[in-house]
Specification:
Number of domains: 2
Distance between the termini: 13 Å
Number of strands: 8
Order of helices and strands: EHHEEHEEHEEHE
Largest sheet: 2 strands, antiparallel
Helix content: 10-25%
Radius of gyration: 15 Å
CATH architecture of the largest domain: 2-Layer Sandwich
Length: 146
Amino acid sequence: MKRVYVNEDWCLGCHLCEYNCAFANSGVSDMAKALKNKPIFPRIRVEEDGKISYAVSCRHCEDPICVRSCISGALSVKDGAVCIDRERCVGCLTCVLVCPYGAVSQNGDGVVQKCELCLQNSFGAPACVQGCPNRAIVYEERGEAE
């Protein structure tokens, strides 16, 4: 299955992945209207540790602990991707607590969110990948050893 991978050696720390993600999931067709003067809630985020910048997003684990610990059944695996049913989420934040990668967060409505690989959008590849100017974020299939 294709997944999002990040190469921290190439990450510029520009945060464009965050803006592209927030825009792609906004439901608005104009980026300025979707994001200008509004808090954004991207499903990917850039972390900085000294001189290293890297993007954090869901790894779509083989046996996701977030799905197993979701008390409302809002999290499930569909075609290998961990997805959220926002109508079922009760906002208990258990998935946020158990995710070993810190990839689940709360959106502005109190519901959790995470990368769903833009499967609900028609971009062909996740918006964060398409918007990364340095190709630090890729969407590809890799073998088990990598």
